[in-house]
Design a protein that fits this description.
The chain is an all-alpha fold. The chain has helices at residues 3-28, 42-48, 53-67, 76-90, 94-104, 114-122, 130-133; strands at 36-37, 74-75. 63% of the residues lie in helices and 3% in strands. The protein has a two-stranded antiparallel ribbon with strand order 1-2.
Length: 138
């Protein structure tokens, strides 16, 4: 896989995450422009985007403080900046993912064969059976 395509993929992931954050934000936003979220809805929204309970309280407090207090609506750009940063820092870094991927890229061509992927999925702790594994391979 070319280095340029790796960086493009990282950008694509961030764009997709931004779109997902916006979709969830707008789903719970009650103002007509869908640009503000009421603080009372924040806990549910944070849970929907995958923020762990242990991180939710602190992030919720920061978002409320940044927005002007407990009763002030939270704007999307504030939400996206803070939640996006937390999601990015909370998971594995791109370089760690790429290194893990290379372990299974036996041919060094930037791909994992369908057979190898199926073998990995069937051997995972959740133990997919042969029938279930077909949904994860092309």
């Amino acid at each position: 896989m070319a280095q340029g395509s790796i960086h493009q993929h990282g950008s694509d992931v961030r764009d997709e995450r931004s779109k997902e954050l916006k979709d969830v934000f707008e789903l719970f936003s009650t103002d007509k422009d869908k640009k503000r979220l009421m603080p009372g809805d924040l806990e549910v929204v944070l849970r929907c985007v995958g923020i762990k309970q242990s991180d939710r309280d602190g992030l919720e407090r920061k978002l409320k403080d940044e927005s002007g207090g407990d009763d002030s609506p939270i704007e999307f750009r504030t939400f996206e900046a803070m939640v996006g940063d937390m999601l990015e820092s909370g998971g594995p870094q791109e370089s760690e993912i790429l290194e893990a991927f290379k372990v299974f890229d036996r041919e060094g061509n930037g791909y994992i064969s369908a057979a190898e992927l199926k073998h990995l999925l069937v051997g995972m702790p959740d133990d997919l059976d042969e029938g279930e594994s077909k949904y994860y391979t092309v």
